[in-house]
Amino acid sequence: RIDIINECIDADIFVNNAYNNDDSQLMLLQEIFKLWKGLDKVIINISSRHTNSNEQYSRNKKKIDEYCEKNVYNLPKIINLKPGLVDTDRVKNIKNIKMTTQDVIDILDFCLKSKVKVHSISFGL
User: Fold this and answer.
1) Is the pTM of the predicted complex or chain greater than 0.85?
2) Alpha-carbon span 111 to 108, nearest angstrom
3) Segments in 1-97 forming alpha helices (H)
4) pLDDT (mean) for 19-36
5) How far apart are CA 46 and CA 64, in angstroms?
6) Alpha-carbon Rg of the chain, whole angstroms?
7) What is the largest CA-CA distance in the chain?
């Protein structure tokens, strides 16, 4: 984690999409936010629309959502994306319609280019 943080010192945008079934994504978000405190930079956090179960994944994503909401009006800017099912290895055995990674990139592109400040957006098929 220290290596990732050190690599981000001069970056302007950080995409936080780590997930390891523990609090590592939240801790990384907190560390980058602290490193960039007060700076005009952007943290793009990838959360999930699926935070209603008691599964560890859902509990961890919910903690991340709460952190993002708490810091919504501070710098660096946090954009909290909450996609539905995205076609990744984690959900490869689920037989629902899934978004592509390009779908997520398109939403992210909209958030970054919008004149309206997007703090959090939930989307899916």
Assistant:
1) yes
2) 5
3) 2-7, 24-35, 56-70
4) 89
5) 9
6) 14
7) 44
